[in-house]
Amino acid sequence: MNYTIPEPQQRISKNAVKVWRISSVISHIITMLIFGALLYCQDRFGWYDWIGHVTWVILILVGLDFVYGVLIRPVFLQRTWRYGVDEEHIQLKHGALEKTHIIVPMTKVQYVNTSQGPLLRKYGLSTIKIGTTASSHEIPAIPEEEAESLRTQIAVLAKITENE
Prior knowledge:
Layout lengths: L9 E2 L4 H30 L3 H32 L1 E4 L3 E6 L5 E6 L3 E7 L2 H5 L2 E8 L3 E8 H14 L7
Antiparallel strand pairs: 1-2, 2-3, 3-4, 5-6, 6-7
Organism: Bacillus gobiensis
Keywords: Membrane, Transmembrane, Transmembrane helix
Protein name: YdbS-like PH domain-containing protein
């Protein structure tokens, strides 16, 4: 029997790029402040010179990662993310360089929930988390109403009850 599952076609929100960029900027600024404080302490307290040299190298690497993490990565993630839900499977497909395609049978789904952080809430987005016996999977940055509907659809198809 030759059974093929069609490729997932649903996309995550374009606002995901904004959310991931803001998140990346915040984390990179915090990292740079920490290493800036190390440089200040190295200079102020006369620590070994190698500490300053290593800190500068790390700061340069963080700067390069900043360019990648703010300008390039969010766009590629949003463009490559696909998901699909049918009666028998949940499909998650993403990645440009390292491609990932996950197929989760509905019979293995144990729970499904939605979550929002402050940035997702600001842009009206939610993340769906799907749990199985062995692992959990996420569909990021879906519009709130669609996420609620999809969560309910998955729960019904997986026959999840509130007593479980």
